From TrEMBL:
This is ABC transporter ATP-binding protein. The chain crosses the membrane at residues 21-44, 64-83, 146-166, 172-189, 243-262, 268-295. It holds the Pfam family ABC_tran. It is a multi-pass membrane protein. It is found in: Cell membrane. Keywords: ATP-binding, Membrane, Nucleotide-binding, Transmembrane, Transmembrane helix.
Length: 595
């Protein structure tokens, strides 16, 4: 009921078309149920005519007028049957496609409302599987299986009504056998549904693993881990195969059992019906119609049994999709303040305490203040908390206590959208999407004109390179974004940040994996972007932050030193050791910096 109720939520806006489809389906199945009865009338009259002719009854012969009348009624029935079938399919297709469109839109909106912590704990591939494979399973079930299921239920119902209309005693014989079919179907469904649930989850995890391995294909080749990756994939694939076999096999057992029970019912009806004909209690035409109704009962039962696998897969997919939609979203305090259109850029951390697990705090008491226009460098060993500090500033995570202020305003008192529009970020892992270079840079400001994009590219020292490419700014970035170099991608993301014209800039310094010439170009571009703006730089090469107004030295989630480059060197503390380790031939064993 949970899944049906949630699906109805998406179908309800199109309920007029839905009920139109159901009405058309009812008309279609009524027309289908009348077919054997109409044929039975003709067969009965022909049988009577043959008997009269065999007994040499005067004037005996085929009653063509009656047969013609029956054929006209049959033709009218056909018009209703095929016309309602077309309308029903047309309306239902509209309902399903519009409902699935709305569902996908909600999933897309949900992704943007989930906290970063959710994506840190879930496989990207599994999330993609929910948004693609699982939604497709629901769509296919609604589009194909649902109408067949409705047809089956209505077909059985109308066939049973007609059987009682023709000969109620004979109908009871079949009705007594039907509960056995229901019992068998319910038992098999109970056994197979958990297997289908496990199959959906296993498929999602396999999809996630494959996506992860493909995205890291180069690293797998470099470290010679192809065989290990293949072995893990084979193991997970075998697990999926075993689970899939179990689910499909149990579900497939339903059809032979249904056919066996149906044939027993057919045999019982045929034997009892013959005795009724011999006794004169049933005409030959009605017996033929009754036998046709037995098929109209058995065929939907077999069809429904064949659909159980698809329907169960759709139910499992629905649970995964709706569980995703029910995930807790980013929490919002009441918006009680607003930031000005342009902020000065004063940033203050005041006694900030934070832990991914509140019982195990990573940061215990972070306090510092940045004046407008200053450049702050954040340094420290791997895992010291540098990226976490930035995540808290952007409100990707919520602090446990304390306050973070921008121009004196607590960032928890403003909306996240309003807060983040004042920030620009250039990450070490440059991200470009499949589109032209022009549109990738324009991502920083979707309203920007082409000449604004080109000006931003010039400031980022990438305009000349772009003009040397085929089609220049209209060159298409491929899906993997590997048709340009890493350094050029980084310059384009800097151009994107220039175009967004942020009040506060965050730079995850990304010059460690490029050559000296590109490093110089990137550093020059970064200096231009930082000019006049409050900037936070996550520093990997300490030689690039000598001129920072404030350097925060972090270790184990806390700030252990802060000051300028010269003052920290003079203090001969942890920063001095880090700095000297990058220029000495031998690095102390207890220091692990990110290079």
């Amino acid at each position: 009921m949970f899944v049906i109720r949630r699906l109805w939520h998406y179908m309800k806006p199109y309920k007029l078309q839905f009920f139109g489809a159901m009405l058309a389906t009812v008309i279609m199945m009524v027309s289908n149920a009348l077919e054997p009865y109409i044929f039975g009338l003709a067969i009965t009259r022909l049988t009577e005519n043959v008997v009269d002719m065999s007994h040499n009854v005067p004037g005996a012969g085929v009653d063509f007028a009656y047969i013609r009348y029956v054929l006209i009624v049959y033709a009218i029935r056909g018009v209703f049957f095929y016309g309602s079938s077309y309308l029903g399919q047309f309306f239902l297709t509209n309902v399903v496609q519009n409902s699935i469109y709305d569902l996908r839109k909600d999933l897309s909106d949900k992704v943007n409302q989930l906290p970063v912590s959710y994506f840190d704990s879930e496989e990207t591939g599994d999330i993609l599987s929910k948004m693609t494979n699982d939604v497709d399973s629901i769509s296919n079930a609604l589009q194909q299986s649902f109408i067949q299921l409705v047809n089956g239920v209505l077909g059985i119902s109308f066939a049973v009504v007609m059987m009682f209309w023709i000969h109620w005693k004979l109908a009871i014989v079949l009705v007594l056998i039907m509960p056995l079919s229901m019992f068998v179907a319910r038992y098999i469904l109970k056994k197979s549904q958990p297997a289908f649930n496990e199959q959906s989850h296993t498929l999602g995890h396999l999809f996630g693993f494959a996506q992860e391995q493909l995205s890291g294909f180069t690293e797998l080749k470099v470290f010679g881990m192809q065989d290990e990756s293949i072995d893990v994939f084979i193991e997970r694939n075998l697990n999926l195969r075993n689970i899939g076999f179990k689910a499909s096999f149990i579900s497939a057992m339903m059809m032979p059992f249904m056919v066996l029970i149906a044939n027993l019912g057919y045999l019982a009806v045929a034997i009892v019906g013959l005795f009724q004909v011999f006794a004169g209690a049933l005409t030959v035409g009605n017996l033929m119609a009754f036998i046709s109704y037995v098929f109209q009962v058995n065929q939907p039962i077999q069809m429904i049994s064949q659909l159980t696998g698809v329907i169960q897969s759709a139910f499992s997919a629905s649970y995964r999709v709706f569980d995703f939609l029910d995930e807790a979203e980013e929490t919002n305090r009441e918006v009680i303040q607003t930031l000005p259109e342009k902020v000065r850029g004063e940033v203050e951390f005041r006694n900030v305490r934070f832990g991914y697990d509140p019982e195990k705090p990573l940061m215990k008491d972070i306090s510092f203040k940045v004046e407008p226009g200053e450049t702050v460098a954040v340094v420290g060993p791997t895992g010291a908390g540098k990226t976490t500090l930035i995540n808290l500033l952007m409100r990707f995570y919520e602090i446990n206590s304390g306050a973070i202020l921008i121009d004196g305003v607590d960032i928890q008192d403003v909306s996240r959208n309003e807060l983040r529009k004042h920030f620009g970020m250039v990450l070490q892992d440059a991200w470009l999407y499949t589109d032209t270079i022009m549109e990738n840079i324009r991502f920083g400001d979707l309203e920007a004109q082409d000449y604004h994009v080109q000006e931003a590219a010039k400031i980022a020292n990438v305009d000349h390179f772009i003009k040397t490419l085929p089609n220049g700014y209209q060159m298409e970035i491929n899906e993997e974004a590997n048709n340009i170099s890493l350094g050029q991608k980084q310059l384009m993301t800097i151009a994107r940040a220039v175009l967004s014209d942020p009040d506060i800039l965050i730079l995850d310094e990304a010059t460690s994996s490029v050559d000296t010439r590109l490093e110089k170009l990137i550093q020059e571009a970064m200096d231009k972007v930082m000019e006049g703006r409050t900037s936070f730089v996550i520093a990997h090469r300490l030689s690039t932050i000598r001129n920072a107004d404030l350097i925060l030295v972090m270790q184990d989630g806390n700030i252990i030193e802060k000051g300028t480059h010269d003052s920290l060197l003079a203090a001969e503390g942890f920063y001095a050791d880090l700095y000297n380790s990058q220029f000495n031939e031998h690095t102390p064993a207890d220091i692990h910096m990110e290079y």
